[in-house]
């Protein structure tokens, strides 16, 4: 048996075991899981993969199997520059970095910026995986207040002026876990605050393309190019298994991020990068995306309709225009963690208790994250109705 003493101190902060325990039951037969955070396999372009892979071999040959540069495969970065321009982000290929998923960006940026005790500002609630990426570097978290329109700019300013965070971490579009989107006026305001206070903002945007209704909102990066790291991902628009993310960071930061990444994985998979190059060249960001949207849009609607039919009047929930999640908020006294074993054991429906998405322990006790991408409409409607009934019985 290896002694516990071999483990670095930082492993003490790698916990999050409570959520792993909680999610174990998802695999039980008959369970309908609204807990997942993953795309539907039906969203993968299976019918095009063989053709894309063959084009990779024709067009990229051995380069697709060789070591590459840490900043990323040049042909992919050229395609990404064109794609980013469609979002309003002006970036030369040399300003773009490719990472192993957007998760790779989160660790990367944390590694080169966070000293023990530094303050990081996060939304309340925020993406759990970001907390997992940042926490080993021993930051202190300060939460920014949110409402139905995402983070409140006055709270961003207040947190920056009071705590001088190393960076502000935001998921502005179809946020994980709430599904909320920060509207245009707030984005502009946040961009001005970042500029005025000379603060770095990490804009994590893996869901932005999954819009089922409403209008495109430009990224914060487009309003404050020198203060924002914009991160995108192929996980939700192509496939998460190719592990590809990309980002545009201010120059000085980018240089350090590349040095740090070199020591971690030398570079991101060359084959995946060549595959993504062909995905973009074939116009699949435009052609394949509508299929994903058509798959998820009715699922979101089915979930919301079933919530309207079955959830108690004391509950509220978000009405996202895209993404993968709906966020439900119960009344005072409802404890979603306490209800969890009831929902899973007696009713075979799983979700994620929302408290895990808050940096401050013990907050968001009455909240739940519900995923709608993994089941068809009928299954979702049935599971949500069961859940609604179970909550009513639990609250009685
Ligand atoms: C907000 C957010 N950021 C980043 C990620 C990581 O995604 P990936 O590394 O697959 O790009 C996720 C995954 O669900 C996410 O929800």
Tell me what you see in this structure.
With 396 residues, this protein is of the alpha/beta class. It has 2 domains: 4-44 and 289-395, Aspartate Aminotransferase, domain 1 (Alpha-Beta Complex); 46-285, Aspartate Aminotransferase, domain 2 (3-Layer(aba) Sandwich). The protein is built from 13 helices and 15 strands. It has helices spanning 17-23, 46-60, 74-86, 101-113, 128-134, 153-163, 184-197, 251-265, 270-281, 284-287, 289-310, 336-347, 377-395, and strands at 32-33, 96-99, 119-123, 140-144, 146-147, 150-151, 167-170, 200-204, 228-233, 245-248, 316-317, 325-329, 349-350, 352-353, 367-371. It has a 7-stranded mixed sheet, with helices on both faces. Strands 11-12-15-14 form a 4-stranded antiparallel sheet. A two-stranded parallel ribbon has the order 1-13. The radius of gyration is 21 Å and the shape is globular. The protein starts with 16 loop residues before the first helix and ends with a helix. The protein binds pyridoxal-5'-phosphate.
What is Rg?
A: 21 Å
- Main sheet? 7 strands, mixed
State mean pLDDT (0 to 100 scale): 96
Low-confidence stretches: none
How many β strands by DSSP? 15
Can you name the CATH architecture of the largest domain?
Answer: 3-Layer(aba) Sandwich
| Ligand roster | pyridoxal-5'-phosphate
Distance between the termini: 50 Å
Q: What's the CATH class label of the largest domain?
A: Alpha Beta
The succession of helices and strands, N to C, reads HEHHEHEHEEEHEHEEEHHHHEEHEEEH
CATH superfamily of the largest domain: Type I PLP-dependent aspartate aminotransferase-like (Major domain)
- Helix/strand-derived category reads alpha/beta
DSSP summary: helix tally:
13
Q: Numbering strands along the chain, what is their spatial order in the largest sheet?
A: 2-10-9-8-7-3-4
